[in-house]
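Supplementary Methods, section 5.1.

A reviewer requested that the exact input to the structure prediction be made available. We therefore reproduce it here, unchanged from the version used in the analyses.
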Amino acid sequence: MNVSELKIDLLARGIRPSAVRFDDSESIAVEYYCISQQQTLWEVYYFERGVKNNLQLFSDEAQACAYLKSLLDSDRTVWSTEQKQS
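The structure derived from this sequence is encoded token-by-token as follows.
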């Protein structure tokens, strides 16, 4: 799975758009999960109050996407509707 496929999957399942970012660009949301590519590595983290929390680095996009998906699947607060089964 790549980032584009992950984004489509999450939106189809009812993720709140403000709950996740797919790059490290500015956001008006105070806290969110993020996946972004930094040079040759993929970063996955939870952004809160200006700090990247629980930062994990991956050399493989598919592994980074799988990790982010597992974080989101276990956090009920990020879903705008009852989460659909994956």
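The longest helix spans residues 61-73. These observations are discussed further in the main text.
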